[in-house]
Structures are given as structure tokens and as C-alpha cells.
Amino acid sequence: MSEPIRVLLAEDDELIREALAGLLEREEDIHLVATARDGREAIERAVLHRPAVAVIDLQMPKVDGLGVIGELARVLPECAGVILTGHGHPHVLRRALASGARGFLAKGAPGTALADVVRRVHEGKRYVDPVLAADALTLAPSPLTARETNVLATAQEDRPIRDVAQELFLSPGTVRNYLATINRKLGVDSRASAHRVARENGWV
């Protein structure tokens, strides 16, 4: 019989962490070598225990899930990362895969799904939640031009106009005009709302 798959689990919610740990520990071919409560602890314990698969919650204190996956890709490249999330926006899926994650699973998935995903990524395959994958394929294109996207990404929610203008080599008036056009295109009345809408849709 082959050696069990060594797994690290990182989840900041204690109840969820214990429930997921219980699911993994039922599997004869999976060995849970460590758990972590935040992103920094996840990285430290991964380096210490050298798991074959790291199951990482997307939203965690200190270092978020994507940051953990990116750091593990650098310090422990043989470890396959799986992002676990309760917030499955399609743009998050794209960012997760870009960070090096091999799997992307919603927390509401069936109880057996996590173990199946662990096995799949350990074999060198990828797994993406099929509902999230379908949503990503049908995601509406951005109504913003490349320049407008750049201005909004630089301006963020409340960065001073003067700083934005200086970084982009534009006049403050031009930046204000861009932001007004962006608000109109997105149907909002403030820069903060525009940035939130664009972020949630994966446009910035």
C-alpha cells in the first residue's frame, strides 16, 4: 500500500476547521499532518511538516489564502495547493489559479468532495468547482477601456487625485474626467462604489 497523502489544513474558523479535519481523518489514504489558524501559521507549518497537499481557506488573518499559495509555490514547490472558499466569485477563481493553486473548491461542496480534490491534485491534476467554472465562462466583459481600468486601479477607493495624476502622468482634471466616466459606465455615484463593483466583477 502506498504512503498516505500528507495534508495541511488552514482555516481560521475553529468549527469549520475541526469539521474539515474530521472529514479528512476518515480517509485511510490521507494523513492530516498539521492544521493552522492563519496564513502565517500555515506557511510556517507547511515548511516544518512538508505536506504533499495544502488545503487553504481563501480569507484568513495575517496572510490570505492566495498569499499562502504563492509563498508555498516559492518555498515548497512540490506541495499542491487547494483553495477553499465560501465566496466563489469567478474572478477569485482566476486569481487562485494564477497564484499556482491546483484546486478550487467551495465550502458548500459535498463532504466527500474535499478528499476527492486532495487525491486529484496529488496526482498532478487540477480541480475547479464546476459551478464556479461555468460562472467564469459566462462572466460579463468589462465596460471600461484599458486606460479607464488603469486609472480606477491606481485611484482605488480613496487615493488622493493629485497622487493618482502624478503616478499616471496626467493632470488632476483628466483623472477626475476619467473617474466621472467610469462612474457613469458602472451606474454608480462614487469612486468607492465603482472600485467595489469593478473588483467584484474581476475587472481590476
> What is the count of helical runs?
10
Alpha carbon gap, first and last residue: 48 Å
Radius of gyration: 20 Å
User: Number of folding domains?
Assistant: 2
Q: Which class of the largest domain in CATH terms?
A: Alpha Beta
Would you count the extended β strands for me? 6
Superfamily (CATH H level) name of the largest domain: Response regulator
Largest sheet: 6 strands, parallel
Report strand %: 5-15%
Tell me the helix content.
Answer: 40-55%
Query: Spatial order of the strands in the main sheet?
Result: 2-1-3-4-5-6
Mean pLDDT: 89
Give the structural class: alpha/beta
Low-confidence stretches: none
Protein described:
With 204 residues, this protein is of the alpha/beta class. The protein folds into two domains: 5-137, Response regulator (Rossmann fold); 146-200, Arc Repressor Mutant, subunit A (Orthogonal Bundle). Helices cover 51% and strands 15% of the residues. It has ten helices and six strands, in the order βαβαβαβαβαβααααα. It has helices spanning 14-25, 39-49, 65-75, 90-99, 113-122, 130-137, 146-155, 161-168, 172-186, 191-200, and strands at residues 5-10, 30-36, 53-57, 80-85, 103-106, 127-128. The chain has a six-stranded parallel sheet, sandwiched between helices. α4 (90-99) links the parallel β4 (80-85) and β5 (103-106). The longest helix is centred in the C-terminal third of the chain and has 15 residues, at 172-186. It is elongated and about 65 Å long. The termini are far apart. The mean pLDDT is 89.
